[in-house]
Input
Amino acid sequence: MQMVHIDDLKGCHVHFVGIGGISMSGLAEILLKRGYTVSGSDLKDSHIIQRLNEKGARIYIGHSPSNVEGAHLVVHTAAVKADNPEIQEAYKRSIPVIDRATLLGQIMESYPYSIGVSGSHGKTTTTSMLSTILLHANLDPTILVGGELDTIGGNVRIGSSPYFITEACEYVESFLHFKPYIAIILNIDADHLDYFRDINHIYQAFSKFAQLVPQDGYVVGCADDPLVKKLLSEVKGNVISYGINGPSDWQACDIYYKDLGTASFKAYYKGKYMGDISLAVPGKHNVYNALASAAAAHVLGVPFEIIQDALKTYRGTHRRLEFKGKMGEVTIIDDYAHHPTEIKATLETVKNYPHNRIWCVFQPHTYSRTKKLFNEFVQAFKQADLLIITDIYAAREKDTGEVHSRNLAQAISQAGQPCIYMQSFDEIANYLKENASPGDIVITMGAGDVYRIGDMLVTSFPQ
Output
């Protein structure tokens, strides 16, 4: 990779390969705002690409060598391989090529108070919660989130202050390109095993991430997660812990769950009662996310009263326990959960909703994750009454034939849980129309395009 810094190319032409991605599009928008000429390519059109078009980016649908014409820098995602025709052409023309994480890290350097939200699960929600708090505090942050947040009208907000908030993803150790003033570490779990050798390899990546924080910065981490707790004990700088079960700097006590699983709790900081926090999003996992957000905001000097008010207003991001609508008297929900830990947390939360039966439609994400966490997936859906598994969403991978959704559905059925495999989204939608009963909940789940089934069900029953 040729090393070049974005600040040395002010006003130049930057081309993004895979510009429609949630993070890539946000970076492209930031550069447009800074006066760069921006072009990009993607395999298909989307509302995100339309938004970039409207802001002045030149977008190509499909990848072609001619797309990099005139570019001074080419940026690509980790999913784009070296044999991509635009990458090949850039090398041929001696145009510098960097990956998404390198560019994001360079942009973060210009913000004295940059915050990287890391963890195997919960990054998007915590980033969004913390963003909501800083907006309520009128700190005018720049925000880059891995989902669409209605409060900012999408996935990016460009402020004019020293505050920058972004997700810090561990995949291919991309977050090691960052230098956050505050590093939040939510949890450390076995995932992305197409890249990481094992859990120890993952732990070492998070440990290196924590070491990137400057001496006057802070590492905020969950003391209830065994690996995060271990990591915090090894950090030489400023550490702030949070948790529910054991000793920690920030603690949630007397947690009370309302009808739909939304929580209220008493917040303590170093043994001092700070006040009550009431959430409008459900689940125990969101209590943890709220504590992480409160801890980081407190470091930045945000008064607790503003933290309280902001968290009360937070309604979630798209694809995180998102209510899609109704199919008659059947409730349709969608969620991004694609790891066994996330699936369990989501279904335990949905169990608190008033319901007759819970239908779960799951789309596995990547062959490597499905294969390496196969046994964990078999056990992850216990809270669902009826389960439909559809084909694996390949994402960045190719099918080697080693694992198939049929295998997973068969193993779950053999473990005693009602489960069927269906290939076609149309077939699944028709099956649910015929078999779901009033009072049932249907939750579509996965990081691919399984949400389309919910759209099909809702649109077929005009409200």
